[in-house]
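EI: anyone free to look at a 989-residue chain?
SC: sure, send it
EI:
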Amino acid sequence: MTMTRKSTPPLLKSVLLLLSLSLGLSALATPVNDEKNEDNVPDFSSVIRPILSRHCLPCHGPDKNTRKADLRLDIHEWALDVLDPSSPDGGEFSRRILSSDQDDQMPPPDFIESLDNEERETLIRWVNAGAPWEEHWSFEPLIHPVLPASSSDSGIDFFIHEKLKQRGLSPSESAMPETLARRSSLDITGLPPEPERVDAFLLEYASHPNEAWTKWIDDLLSSPSYGERWASLWLDLSRYADTKGYEQDGHRNIWPWRDWLIRSLNSDMPFDRFTQEQLAGDLLSDATDQTRIATAFHRNTLTNDEGGTQDEEFRVAAVVDRVNTTMEVWMGLTAACAQCHDHKYDPISQKEYYQLYDVFNQTQDSDRNDEFPTLPVLKDDDEIELVKTRELLSQQLQTLSEEKLQIPDPIKQESPPDPATAEVMIDLAYSGVTLPLATETIDQTVTPWIWSPAPVDSPEGLTRIIRQKAPPQQTRQVFFDQSLIPVSVRNGDILSIQVKILESPQTLMLQVHSADETTWEHRAFWGEDLFTWGISGTPSRWQMGDTTNLQVTGEWLNLEIPISTIAITPDKKITGVALSQIGGLVEWGGVRLRGIREETPRPLSNFDDFLNMYPQFQSQLLPAEIRSLIEQNPALGSDSFQNLFDWWKSEVSLYGRMILFSRKQEIAQTRKLLESIKSRAVSVPILASLSAEMKRETRLLQRGSYLQPGEIVTGNVPEFLHSPSSNTPMNRLELAKWLVHPDNPLTARGQVNRIWEQLFGKGLVRTVEDLGTQGELPSHPELLDHLAVTWQESDQWSLKALIRRIMLSDTYRQSSRQTPEHLRIDPDNVWLARAPRTRLTAEMIRDQALAVGGLLSRKLYGPPVYPPQPDGVWQVVYNGSNWPTSVGENRVRRSLYTYWRRTAPYPAMLIFDSPDRQVCQSRRIRTNTPLQALVTLNDPVYIEAAAGLAKLALSENDTVLDAVTFAFRRALSRKPESAELETLMSFVS
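SC: here you go
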């Protein structure tokens, strides 16, 4: 139904309003730092270091290329050369910053940022107090703060409450259980809770609040939606997109990595293993296809397919991006500065940067169109079908093996021919004249048939031997429309034709004409099923063998056909024969009809007896290698001969081939199905290491340019942190182990801070992306270290355990109500006397609207989808392709499955602050613009969600009041208050 603004029903207007209210918009806070201690001495980390970083370190910091006077003010030992607190004037440092002489003044007058008077006074007070120094907090080892014995919580509330006491604040009361249910469901799963589940939670919460809350959190953490919600964070970190980037921004099949990510999060893969698989899954001792898919984390780098570009330039750019992303995601450092020069603020030299670069420089991928190396990956449905088909094939092969055992042993049961058995040579004639060889053939393609005369060779002057050569996919046929003497057929007769394969054909066929028939309906063929006459396996057409019967041997083979298999009955007489082939060079010999009488069976004593009795089978039975082995080793044991007979029974003997024919046909069809399923796989780009002989020589790139290679460097890690735990040459796996080593203080701090930021709207360190000297200081450093140590040691790197620990705290469960005291003392809620108010992410806004409207698909995994977006968005980018809007379930899947094109991201999510994913982004900066309101009013997603909610409300309620209450509760997980209900009813009316 198409709706216009004029025809929008009142209830639909109401639910649109409710959907907008459920977004929960709010602003983020700005951290507050303490500037002074009780002695009025400026704090070094929060006050002095930022001043030094801004005004001094550009010339007296880590970068040796810009360092002046061989002075460093970022290292205490070096700074003491100019700091002299015992001197009356404070030493050279104080003299220079107070000097009015332009030649002595520091920073120089022409420096971009000069000291103001307040900063000078602060520095002098610091020097006069003895210039107390602290190393940067995040580079120091983790400290496990001691909790008081009286503390009964996980430590979170203790550290939060201590900070609150220092500022004269008290924690807020717990939020209403309905609020907690909605808050936690959105935080853990990214979706609002179903009203029925909220009802059950409220009932249990009323009598056992702590137990009910714990169970509620555990249930949410076990939901498959958990992995989807937290995967969205890692899509930003990994710069995930379904395209390659740059100008052409072509398609890339990398969604299986996204699926691996969701699965690993849902399975609660320990973060150390999670790290190793993504950075070096191909190098693990227990590497699998899944761990190799994990390495696609670093194949999310951009690739330039534009013609005429320098491939090496963009390969280098991709490796640089991998270094920068790794350092930001795992270490919380901005290493990119060191690409061109020593880092001006953090202790990372340019040489150390390129030592890290060398670790990622030894992979096989490059800036090429084919995304090599890749791994074939099936969709989940196809993978399930593949497993079932493999199981079917295994069962069929087992059945085949069992049926082979039931075939009689030729030595024990085969008898010599009865003396009365007749063997008749069917003389071939054309127009009633006996011919030494055929004089007319048919040369034709497989489809359609084209008839034309062609000569036939006679090798070495032999008679009754026909040599035919046919090009590939071409048919050659010679036929004889009558025999010199019609040959009668008896029960048990076997028709045979001798052939010599000189060049393998695709198919051979023998046709027989009967005296009382006008057609050539009786056919048998060997090889591929290419002839179009009749249906294979019917009485008129039978496949006697596959292409293994048509290999080049240069020897005469005897091909046999029981007359019953091609529907020739004893009342018929053979009066004509046709010999056909598709491709190959074949010599055809005589056609024989052999009748066997089984009167008194007499077992043959050994293999020699068998071959002596059937000398015509020797070439057909035994390949030359096997015959040679027997001739040279007459003393071979019975087991060897038995194995030979087993092979003969199933693959060569007429009886065996007849029994097993249908089973082999089934197996062939199953194998064909397997290949068909495998062909549906997509090629996923992965990381793979270069071989030792192909390893690249890595050089420091001067000014970061691939055109200016400098000194040779080899893989290593920055010296300011712990050394690698082994002497193994540094590669991606060793780097991953180093990142998650207990001695590394940055990784655990960074990840805990990131999780906290996701749950509270901002991290304990607000600059999630930068824990270095230019980042902000932690508001609760003891809490950060406590959680980091506990996560490593007690939780064994479990992300779910960390999230659970935080969400079970009283701090998380607080009400978000603000008081005048809160606004006066802590307007930005740095100290967490109340719960934060944060807007949902772009993905959550869309997903919760679809969920509330009853439209959201809960399908997991698979290729990207194309929900509705405005027309023409893709027309402004390269190649101007159209957005293929999905239909059905794919139209309403969760947002993280939406196709992401870097040059034209999905606009509704971009407007709500999703990054374009050109590069890694650790933190989304929330904005508040009129466009966001217009999205929720005009985007088809929200119109359809509102219509879906209205439909649900009307279908499940009898009155407008009940319908409005139902819609409100479904959108906000609670009942409306009286004033709210009155407003909504007035709106509907």
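EI: The chain has a mean pLDDT of 83.
SC: 👍
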